[in-house]
Amino acid sequence: MVKELIIWRGSQYSTKVIAALHTKGLKPEADYRLRSAPNGLEERKKLLPAPYTVPVLRWDDEIISGSDNICRFLDKQLSSAPPLYPAASDGEVRRLEEAAAALYWTNGWLSTIDPVGMEEWSGQRARNAVAKGEVGKLAKFAQAVLPQKTFGRVMHGVVQKDFRAFLRRRGEETGSEAPARLADERDSAKVLDEARTLLRVLDDALVASPTPYCCGSATPTAADLTLYGMLERWLGDSLCPGMNGASTPTIADGMAGVTAAWQAMRKTFRPDIDLHDLKDYKDLEEPITGPTTFPPSE
């Protein structure tokens, strides 16, 4: 019996699925093992099924790629556990899930391209990686000889360049307007305003709900969990206390619904799904062979 989730620590959608598994009563290492995928696309192509993204779930003979598909699979496989797509509000939950997913591009921009956001979210993680020799001798040498602020600017320049290239590539692959446009954006205040406008769509829905979650659900839905993955970057620590921090801690100011959902989910999930002190967290070494099996091809 194999239950294995391939993730990248810091990935918003990896956070979403880890929280979804928790909602279904499954905790990392106790009920399934975690493996780490490389961040680079060419390396992932050698190990993961198309479209080479994380998360990927292996559940016995099933291979499921993508957070939405994994959430639907979990509802099918564990139908007696709290639903991620409640039957009475399935269509609205899917609409709000898409609205939450629309935050992804500004979420990434504000935590990697924005210099303050990048430093708050992953500056310490980057310095720790260099100190441990995880990113090459040149980076370790630069950290040793450059002033801290200068080294930080150098590291940010590398991360920023990579993420802008990612946005351009994803814009070409998906035909989506947002990543292509944000790849060339330079104005942090403008991106923050765009992100808050998108976030208010979720806030309106949550304020209208009689529970802290979307559509009056007693437990987090797939829409709430998508939002949670974004908020862990903006307001939390991406499940890695001491490694990551909050990139944009004021982004939900004045949004009562989003704030209540965030607080409720953090209280529910943490520290059960923390990823900073795992005992069996290793790089994925053997390729996952075969195509994805869910949803079934027609």
Describe this structure in words.
This protein is an alpha/beta fold and 298 residues long. It has a domain at 3-86 and 277-283: Glutaredoxin, CATH 3.40.30.10. The protein is built from 12 helices and 5 strands. A 5-stranded mixed beta sheet has the order 4-3-1-2-5, with helices on one face. It is globular.
Distance between the termini: 27 Å
Question: Which residue ranges are poorly predicted, with pLDDT under 50 across at least 5 consecutive positions?
Answer: 134-152
- Percentage of β-strand residues: 5-15%
CATH architecture of one domain: 3-Layer(aba) Sandwich
In short:
With 298 residues, the protein is an alpha/beta fold.
Layout of helices and strands:
Blueprint: E1 3-7, H1 12-23, E2 33-36, H2 41-45, E3 56-59, E4 62-65, H3 67-77, H4 90-101, H5 104-113, H6 115-131, H7 137-145, H8 148-174, H9 177-182, H10 188-208, H11 222-234, H12 256-269, E5 282-283
Helix pairs in contact: 1-3, 1-11, 4-11, 5-6, 5-8, 5-10, 6-8, 10-12
Summary keywords:
Glutaredoxin, 53% helix, 12 helices, 298 residues, alpha/beta
